[in-house]
Design brief:
By secondary structure, the chain is mainly α. It has 2 domains: 56 residues; 247 residues, Growth Hormone, Chain: A (Up-down Bundle), CATH 1.20.1250. It is 74% helix and 0% strand. Helix 8 runs parallel beside helix 11 and helix 12 runs antiparallel to helix 14. The chain is globular, with a radius of gyration of 25 Å. 34% of the residues are buried.
């Protein structure tokens, strides 16, 4: 419900207050989470963890590494990949990520225990998360730009355009949670991303000024259905692939992977869409009868994408031609991003097919099932195991 309200409320704040207000919206929510956690959530710890020390070095390396890579990717369209700041940022970020992996392999209390990835289910679920949430994060970001800058939606309307997506996930979550009990984990995690891939591809169909209900609405519905099929079985697979004591850290890793995927996708897709937009804009400007100076002044703003400003000193007819050229160039780049997202979703389905369901489950649920089987085959000896702590 809050996911549904968030984009609409955020859009309203952007329109009527300021874009800065969107970030302040998180403060009361964070305060409420802290209070509820301190009041109602009991403390827990891994009994095998002797000192309970936090992995500060691992956290620092991950933060600096990802931050530097994203900074380099974001600045590369403006400065160029050969710029010293971009090269240093990308090289430093990659080095920090490599050091993070080495540190996690040797640390006593690693933030990301690499041994968890020995489970094919856990590795497959996180690879699916990386690919699918990269597609989703990039799509939602650039879809908003498409609606506001090209289709001329208000910020509030752009936020409301995703409401069907959220409603579908909300209403189908209980149904999708039962899919893994009926069909196992692999089938839903192959079908769900495949349906989502179709949804991503449908976003590439609409052109400029298309009606929402006949253009974007079908894409939102199909994407929402695909994600609804995927999310609950994915979460269950992650939790079932590790022991009960490791469930918390497994969930944390999976959430971190999804956030990292969205972060990297926006940076990488930003580079892709800018180059596609720039190529199309140059070609379309050549088709508009304007002088070289005006053409250059428009093209130099290409880093703003569809938000670039058309000079007001020219005739209204020429202004409209330039606006159509800019909008058409962005739609071209947006379609490319949507097709890349569809490819990522299909790759996530393939990763599920190849990896998930290939290893023996280690979850607490399956540990409880095993004594039941022993009870049926070994009589009283199995019954004694059932009565032990941890199986009730």
């Amino acid at each position: 419900m809050t996911t549904a309200i968030g984009p609409v409320l955020g859009g309203w704040l952007v329109e009527h207050v300021s874009w800065r207000a969107v970030f302040f919206l998180n403060l009361p929510l964070a305060a409420a989470v802290i209070v509820i956690s301190l009041w109602h959530v009991p403390e827990s710890r891994d009994e095998e963890d002797q000192d309970g020390a936090l992995d500060w070095l691992g956290a620092a390396l991950a933060t600096i590494g990802l931050g530097a890579i994203v900074f380099g990717l974001i600045e590369s369209p403006r400065l160029g990949f050969r710029h010293a700041a971009v090269l240093a940022s990308l090289a430093g970020g990659i080095a920090c990520v490599a050091l993070f992996v080495l540190h996690e392999a040797r640390a006593r209390n690693p933030m990301v225990p690499l041994r968890l990835f020995r489970s094919k289910d856990f590795a497959g679920a996180n690879l699916l998360t990386l690919l699918l949430y990269a597609a989703l994060g990039g799509t939602l970001f650039f879809f908003t730009l498409e609606l506001i800058q090209v289709q001329r939606y208000s910020a509030t309307a752009a936020g409301a355009a995703l409401l069907p997506f959220v409603v579908l996930m909300f209403t189908l979550s209980r149904w999708s949670g039962g899919l893994i009990d009926r069909f196992g984990s692999r089938l839903p995690l192959v079908i769900g991303p495949t349906v989502a891939a179709l949804g991503f591809a449908l976003f590439a169909v609409p052109s400029i000024s298309d009606n929402y209900w006949t253009s974007f609405f079908p894409a939102v519905i199909v994407l929402g259905l695909g994600m609804a099929i995927t999310v609950a079985p994915l979460t269950t697979t992650v939790m079932d692939s590790v022991s009960e004591e490791q469930a918390g850290i497994a969930s944390g890793i999976n959430n971190a992977v999804s956030r990292t995927a969205g972060l990297l996708a926006i940076a990488v897709f930003g580079v892709v869409i800018l180059y596609a937009f720039s190529h199309q804009l140059g070609a379309r400007l050549n088709q508009v009868g304007i002088d070289e100076q005006l053409k250059r002044s428009v093209y130099e703003q290409r880093v703003k994408l569809a938000g670039l400003e058309v000079p007001q000193t020219i005739s209204p007819e020429t202004q409209e031609q330039l606006k159509q050229a800019v909008a058409g160039s962005f739609v071209y780049g947006f379609r490319l991003i949507m097709l890349l997202s569809a490819a990522l979703a299909l790759a996530s389905a393939l990763s599920s097919w190849l990896l998930i369901g290939k290893s023996r489950p280690t979850s607490a649920r399956h540990q409880r099932d095993e004594p039941d089987q022993q009870k049926r085959t070994h009589g009283d000896r199995g019954a004694q195991k059932i009565d032990q702590p941890g199986f009730d």
